Amino acid sequence: MSPTVSLIFAAVVDKCCFWCYSVNL
């Protein structure tokens, strides 16, 4: 993957994980 795609993917995963973590609390 290109660096840009990796950064976008990491940002999306980070937002999803943060959202799931917040809901689980």
Automatic annotation (TrEMBL):
<protein>
    <submittedName>
        <fullName>Uncharacterized protein</fullName>
    </submittedName>
</protein>
